[in-house]
């Protein structure tokens, strides 16, 4: 893959063992969440990251700086539920000072957004993505085990009021759960000036109730949508973006993130840092690099960049493709990661490493 032009490079940009650049960083600011979605955090209680290990906002900004020195130019704040992290706007103000970052985005469930949207906008946050799987309050409650639908709707309404444009709504499409709401979600997106992105249900941890039968594939989604909208045209190349975008005849656009049936490992330029500073080079990786200990021990900037560069240059992960191959060969046994292992190491949970 050709290396993209680095964004104001201070150091030669890092490329992994397959030539994939280091561009996109997902920063999980907390492992805590105020929902208990069945597909992500189905249990009431978890082994939480020790509080003293959780990075301060300053530590997160400093760590991000080492990544941007090596090529990262897009940062997404996620979790857990990122708005549970006190003073998130201050982290954004710190990140905005880093001129190498061209895009700072937030993925949230929207519950607390109405209280914070204005401050986040003023702090310099560029974009907001809200997760929304259903437009039916009762379904929402069943899926999330919390009665917060109304607050999510308020959160969605607050985004444009605060001044943001380019809102995205992310929907995990699950067969037998919300496959009858795809059209309603697109229509809702039009009303609130948001682009809807349907995510194929992923097998992200032992504790979620994933099964191949529940995956609504990209093709199945397109079939459902074309019954209502007629011809659907793909829009350009996907590049390193996870979503494939499509346009309906009336001009409405939407995206599909076909992570399960059509993994994008070949162009994946993302990595993830957990709230306690563990760095994972793949959503499916079981081994990460502890950056917190070195950071807190006062490692020099050069040493930190050296660790990150070496970690990225050794990256050979193609987690989603490997999952798919196992599935196709009928070799996938049980959940992705067993529940006991998840209890031993909370980093392996999706909510710790950031979705
Ligand atoms: N709490 C925030 C939120 O709800 O957007 C951020 C964290 S959440 C883990 C990030 C995204 O991961 C959400 O859009 C969620 O729907 C998605 N996600 C979680 N588990 C998933 C799964 N099994 N398959 C596909 N997407 C999943």
Keywords:
single chain, 355 residues, 12-stranded mixed beta sheet, binds S-adenosylmethionine
The number of distinct helices, counting runs of at least 4 residues, comes to 12
Largest sheet: 12 strands, mixed
- Which outline best applies? globular
Ligand catalogue = S-adenosylmethionine
Radius of gyration of CA atoms, rounded to a whole number: 19 Å
**Order of strands in the sheet with most strands:** 7-8-9-6-5-4-3-2-1-10-11-12
What is the overall pLDDT average?
Answer: 92
Structure explained in plain terms:
It is a single chain. The chain has 355 residues and is an alpha/beta fold. Helix content is 32%, strand content 16%. It has twelve helices and twelve strands. A twelve-stranded mixed beta sheet has the order 7-8-9-6-5-4-3-2-1-10-11-12. Helix 6 links the parallel strand 5 and strand 6. Helix 1 packs parallel to helix 2, helix 1 packs across helix 9 and helix 3 runs parallel beside helix 5. The longest helix has 14 residues. It is globular and about 60 Å long. The two termini are 25 Å apart. The mean pLDDT is 92. The structure holds S-adenosylmethionine. S-adenosylmethionine binds next to strand 3, strand 5 and helix 12.
């Amino acid at each position: 893959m050709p290396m993209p032009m680095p964004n104001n490079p201070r150091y030669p940009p890092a490329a992994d063992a397959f030539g994939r650049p280091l561009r996109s960083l997902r920063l999980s600011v907390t492992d805590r969440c105020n929902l208990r979605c069945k597909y992500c955090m189905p249990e009431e209680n978890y082994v939480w990251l020790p509080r003293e290990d959780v990075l301060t906002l300053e530590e997160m900004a400093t760590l991000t700086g080492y990544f941007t020195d090596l090529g990262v130019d897009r940062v997404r704040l996620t979790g857990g539920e990122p708005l549970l992290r006190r003073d998130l706007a201050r982290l954004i103000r710190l990140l905005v000072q880093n001129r190498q970052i061209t895009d700072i985005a937030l993925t949230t469930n929207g519950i607390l957004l109405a209280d914070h949207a204005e401050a986040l906008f003023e702090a310099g946050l560029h974009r907001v993505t809200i997760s929304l799987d259903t437009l039916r309050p009762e379904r929402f409650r069943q899926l999330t085990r919390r009665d917060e639908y109304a607050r999510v709707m308020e959160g969605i309404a607050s985004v444009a009021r605060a001044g943001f444009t380019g809102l995205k709504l992310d929907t995990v499409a699950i067969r037998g759960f919300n496959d009858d709401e795809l059209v309603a979600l697109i229509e809702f997106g039009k009303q609130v000036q948001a682009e809807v992105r349907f995510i194929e249900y992923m097998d992200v941890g032992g504790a979620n109730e994933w099964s191949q039968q529940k995956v609504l594939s990209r093709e199945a989604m397109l079939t459902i949508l074309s019954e209502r909208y007629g011809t659907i045209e793909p829009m350009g190349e996907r590049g390193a973006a996870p979503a494939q975008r499509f346009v309906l005849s009336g001009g409405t656009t939407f995206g599909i993130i076909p992570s399960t049936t059509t993994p994008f490992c070949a162009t994946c330029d993302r990595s993830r840092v957990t709230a306690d500073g563990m760095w994972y080079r793949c959503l499916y990786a079981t081994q990460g690099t502890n950056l917190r200990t070195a950071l807190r021990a006062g490692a020099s900037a050069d040493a930190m960049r050296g660790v990150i560069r070496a970690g990225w240059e050794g990256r050979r992960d193609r987690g989603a493709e490997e999952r798919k191959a196992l599935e196709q060969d009928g070799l996938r046994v049980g959940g992705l990661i067993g529940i006991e292992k998840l209890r031993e190491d909370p980093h392996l949970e999706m909510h710790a490493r950031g979705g």
